[in-house]
Design goal:
The chain has helices spanning about 10-30, 35-45, 50, 65-75, 80-105, 105-115, 120-125, 125-145, 150-160, 170-175, 180-195, 200-210, 215-230, 240-260, 265-280, 285-295, 300-305, 315-340, and strands spanning about 30, 345. With about 350 residues, it is mainly alpha-helical.
Length: about 350
Amino acid sequence: MFDFCKTSRTAQSFLHFLLLVILALFAGTRVGWSDQDGYMWIFDMVSPLPVFISGQTFMEFRIEYFYLLFNSFLKCFSENPLVMFLSVATMVVALNLRAFRKYSPYFFLSILVYYSNYYFVGTMTAMRQGLAAAVILTGMAFLADRKWTAFFITVFVACLFHFSAIFVLFGYLLYRLNFSARVLFWMVAGSFMMGIFSPISHWLFSHFIGLGDLNPQIQTGLNYLEDQQQGFALGVLRPTSLKQLAICLLVIRYRDYLCTQLKYFNVLSIFYCAATMWRFIFNDIAVLAARVGGLLSVGEPVIVVSFLLLFKPDQRRWIALLVVVFAAASLYLNFIAFNFPPYVSALWGGKYWKEGFFGF
């Protein structure tokens, strides 16, 4: 394990860059995933930047304007959508790795945990949300440094790629209220019981469905959430939910000590507790629970490896093997939960990419 080997700063930087290239290529050239056709259609339909900014309508896309602007900019260089996929993947991986290097006591172990969970779910699948989550993770340092304006700017930038990032303000609220470990425990316990016996979606739709009369786009969003609520629930007692609950309880138990060891642990831990509560309360609307919960819990790769600091230095190398087992289990659970198809890369062609990797 590189984290426990004595290597020069130059060697670490080289490994950092190598992992960035590998992970970006692996995610950016993947074909055959669920939302790929939709992203390709958007890229095909949007005009190059000079035409786009001169007045092309974007309401038909029903997607964030800045993301369309980003696609339009990339289309000035190539009409192959692979350029867009590679660009987004590179930005997501670069931001995440930069944050891990700043926040984590064990950089390479954090990358392993990231690969087993958020890399597959966010970077490789939910592309816009993955980019918004990477921006939020980078911006969490501003909270620890008490740079409130910079954090709000970060949230605004994340919303330009995926508007669900606005809900990370729930984590900000908990952070500013600075609840004790006891209060956080009972809040998580209460949200767990609410998720089992009284999910919030029924109340949500009965009280807010009238907002659709104010704006057609609001009505479209409410209809989408209602369809998701009727069609698929995330569940409170699923293995992935119970895994997050277990990590959250460990966070609450050892937060005070770990905050003395890591500058950024407090903000990461509070946001993780917020993610757990959100996931339970809205569990019967899978798209809302998973997307917002994923944005709030994006610090999990740092949190998990931080538990190694609870052990003596000479024990950590062996306890780190449990982190490897955790990463393998998370990867397995994600493959079950999301039913990932076999990996196919445009590097060696594929039925979705007639021209292959070099067809720019």
